[in-house]
Amino acid sequence: MNENAYQFNFSQLDGEEISLSQFKGKAILIVNTASFCGLTYHYSGLEKLYQKYKERGLVIIGFPCNQFGKQEPGTSEEIKEFCNLNYDVTFLMSTKVDVNGKNAHPLFKYLKSELKGKLNDSVKWNFSKFLIDRDGIPFKRFSSTVEPEDISASIEEVL
Predict the structure, then answer these.
(1) 147 to each of 7, 34, 40, 134, how far by Cα in Å?
(2) How is 32-61 classified by DSSP, letter by letter?
(3) SS (H, E, C) 66-114
(4) Is pLDDT at 2 greater than 70 in this prediction?
(5) pTM of the model
(6) 65: Cβ–Cβ under 8 A, 6 or more apart, which residues?
(7) Distance spanning both ends of the chain, measured CA to CA
(8) Which residue among 39, 50, 72, 119 sits deepest, i.e. has the most Cβ atoms within 10 Å of its Cβ?
(9) Which distant-in-sequence residues (6+ apart) come within 8 Å of 38 by Cβ?
(10) Helix 76-87 crosses helix 42-53 at what angle (to 10 degrees)?
(11) Residue 75 exposed, middle or buried by CB count within 10 Å (0-12, 13-18, 19+)
(12) pLDDT tens digits for 62-96?
């Protein structure tokens, strides 16, 4: 069985393959994102969290997903441009992934198995958040309606 999140990789928007193992000793916040969602403004709060805690070891990775209301239709280039122009996003962004179903990214399959959802394990909507501690162990799951600033206490806990 998988012991921690460090065994997973993802592709950045520019195509570069990144291993989560390079973030050993840091807290990681994984978020499924979308450019055309009522919650898209969460990018702003996530960027604020990143600026506040990055020096203390927080890594944030956005995973664009088009599975909810087709709210992330863009290409990697369009997603990157949208995030930069509208929210000055400086945290890491993955290429578009599925978070549910048979084609779900392996990281999301793992996170959902470790941090169960309320009704079932599936990700319910865009901007669901998964916090991983400094040892790569999934720590806490937050629903999409939880504002980024409202998870500061949990981030403090794992930092």
Answers:
(1) 29, 15, 11, 22
(2) EE-TTSTTTTHHHHHHHHHHHHGGGTEEEE
(3) CCCCCCCCCCHHHHHHHHHHHHCCCCEEECCCECCCCCECHHHHHHHHH
(4) no
(5) 0.96
(6) 32, 33, 34, 72, 96, 97, 98, 99, 123, 126
(7) 26
(8) 72
(9) none
(10) 80
(11) exposed
(12) 999 999 999 999 999 999 999 999 999 999 999 99
Q: Which 3 state secondary structure label does DSSP give 23?
A: helix
Which tens digit of pLDDT belongs to each residue from 99-138? 999 999 999 999 999 998 777 889 999 999 999 999 999 9
Main-chain dihedrals φ then ψ at residue 122, nearest 5 degrees? -65, 155
Domains of the chain: 5-158 (3.40.30.10)
Pick from 20, 31, 64, 50: nearest CA to 143: 31
Active site members: 37
If one counts every other C-beta atom within 10 angstroms of the C-beta of residue 117, the result is: 13
* Contact yes or no for 152/29 (Cβ under 8 A): no
CA 52 – CA 27 distance, rounded (Å): 13
